[in-house]
Amino acid sequence: MTHSARPRPWKSRKTLRRGLLAVTTAALTALVVSAAAPTPTPADTHQEPHAAEGPAWTGTWGAAMQRPVEGSEDWGPNWSRQGFADQSVRQVVRVSTGGSTVRIRLSNAYGTTPLRITAATVGRSAGDAQVWPGTARKLTFKGAQGATVAPGRDMASDAAPLRTSPLEKLTVTLYFADLTGPATFHRFTTAVSYRASGRHLTDADGDAFTTSTKAWYFLSGVEVSGPASPRRGTVVAFGDSLMDGTGAPPGTDTRFTDKLAERIAADRRPLDVVNAGISGNRILNDSPCYGDKATDRFRRDVLDRPGVRTVIVHLGGNDIGAPTMGDPCMGSAPHVTAHQIIDAHKNLIRAAHARGIKAVGATILPMKGALFPVYSERGEKTRTAVNHWIRTSGAYDAVLDVDRTLADPAAPALPRPGYVFPDGVHPNEAGSHAIASAMNLNEL
């Protein structure tokens, strides 16, 4: 899909199926990662700039990275398999809080060869592919104009002198002179990325950026510096399509995480919000299209981000629904038990606590209203058992009750009609607003 295309949620049952998968899968995957993550990450996993005295860094925007995969009728085209060569890629992101300086984080997590970034800039968005004149800042990497990121690694840029404000949009422009090979990316977004032939790092008008997709490439984080404070930190929303934003219209910034960031900004709290959801993600099993299982990606997508103080976990729905979906993109789809899902959640909680990070459990949303084959009596019993454990076990530091927020009061297994997207399961703008409103900010 190009940035001008309108979503057609009713077009394909596969699209609806995938959205639900994303919500449940992400929750399950997070649990497994937690189990594997208590051990600190080896020092060579990331290529960090030299630590400096002074302000603290926090993640103010982020995306969970995925393996390259072909585009499709449901998900739209993307450039991940072909990569880039003598091309500029301009990506638009909305930060959650502001800071005095900014840096970006680039990922080559799924690359098989070194990734060469020739040059990069960051500036204020003026809409679409445009940049406010005079705001583009050249980025450096350990003092150099470009950088090479080894396969399986990521790298942060040096700090750039661009002061940012809460909820404003930035453009990040990357120029690749050489062939990148297949691109580590985030497949589903509600934003637009633009591509131009040649070097167009500081173009303000954006006219050279003639093609677009709804995906993010190599860009895994935007980080800001601000005064160190016990109250300052990043909240990471980790999970499946509920977190990723299935159901939010393109360009509207109406995902759950967007609404949460707006509440936090209105309350003048020094908290950033990072979205680490992957549509279709599961907690117990990998998928060719929907990302590594949550327990395996938890360290990279949550623990290794700077300044994280809280993680919100919504996972398990895709694990429960996968056996009924018949989606080849899901890969293996075994029946799972509540015990397996709960054990995976416990692993994530232990991993978070080992890093001093608070863990908030989000109950799995109602699944019976889906317009695709995801509901079963067996699955509903599993969902109910997992949700009961999240609410009552005390294993999580706090609970965000997505299930009760979205459920129809007259029929709790069904979603409230005014809160769901046309697929019958994912929240629309009103539903996302309701979930964000249900979060006690004092628990973050």
What would your notes on this structure say?
Helix 1 packs across helix 4 (294-303) and helix 1 (13-36) crosses helix 6. The protein is built from nine helices and 22 strands. The protein starts with 12 loop residues before the first helix and ends in a 6-residue tail after the last helix. With 444 residues, it is α+β, with helices and mostly antiparallel strands. The chain has helices at residues 13-36, 241-244, 256-266, 294-303, 317-325, 338-354, 377-392, 402-406, 429-438, and strands at 46-47, 56-62, 87-94, 101-107, 115-117, 119-124, 137-139, 147-149, 154-156, 169-176, 185-186, 193-197, 211-213, 216-217, 219-226, 233-239, 271-277, 308-314, 358-362, 398-400, 407-408, 411-415. The longest helix has 24 residues, at 13-36. A hairpin with a 2-residue loop joins strand 21 and strand 22.
Give the biggest beta sheet: 6 strands, antiparallel
In order across it, which strands form the biggest sheet? 7-6-10-3-12-13
Q: Mean pLDDT score, rounded? A: 88
Structural class: alpha+beta
- Would you identify the regions where 5 or more consecutive residues have pLDDT less than 50? 1-52
Q: Which range does the strand content fall in?
A: 15-25%
Radius of gyration: 20 Å
The general outline is: globular
Instruction: Give the tally of β-strands.
Output: 22
Our count of helices gives 9
State the end-to-end CA separation: 36 Å
Approximate helicity band: 10-25%
